[in-house]
Amino acid sequence: METQTPSQNNTRIDVYALITERIIEQLEKGTVPWRRPWSDGGLPRNLFSKKYYRGINLILLSALGYEQNLFITFKQLKEIGGKVKQGEKGCPVVYWNVKDKAEEDETATEPKQKKVSILRYYTVFNVSQCENIPDGYIPAITKVIGSIQSCEDIVANMPQRPDIRHKEQKAFYNPLLDFINMPKKSTFGTAEGYYCTLFHEMIHSTGHRSRLNRRDLIEMAEFGSDPYSHEELVAEIGACYLQSHAGVTSEFEQSAGYIAGWLAKLKNDKRFIYTAATQAQAATDFILNVKQGVDESEQAEE
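-> structure tokens emitted (302 positions)
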């Protein structure tokens, strides 16, 4: 049974490598974790605080495929008299630990203090991995079915939204002229397919200099380059975040070649998936006009 806390060996573990290994494990099984139908089990949240997990944590926890995406720390579980079932293993949740560090300055009478951020993690368990949780803590399962109106609302309410045109039969975002082109809705097999494609291009548009000024969007001109691949992953993950928010899903290609391509990228750069998920969350927050800090709230849950 895994009961590790942040104080145990956490400083000796490369957290970027840890989360990348978990994503690689899913890909090698033929599952693309950022393309799971996340609406099935609801967005992952903490059973006690009710706060939703964000960024890479959303992907890590959603990919586990539980019926209910409700999670609890070992400490929280112990406080209510519950326990982890024999043989169950938890999932890491990462957060930034900000500390003060003295900065040497020969001209100063006292050392300056600067903020140092260290990526740390703690372990959570799904409620189905636990037993003896008192009645009343776990809500009844309710499946929320989204509507196309929810997609329209996301599009209509995006701040500084670029112009959306339907002149060419292909989907793309033009960062130089700042507009999105979409094929006509009638050419898509489903309405969900249209909006999921539009969400992808909307995420790209948040990288414009007038919005989030994302470097990889500006440098992504060369197909297959690292900036191109990184920006494409940001758009893929961000589109899935928006789908979850709207309560819709769409079929995706998950061919062997597609999976092999992402495996190569992740194995070459241990920070690739983390930075993409973080930027995708920032892009989603921009589109939804959500003002959020980083993951301090998840640190408090531990």
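The chain has ten helices and nine strands.
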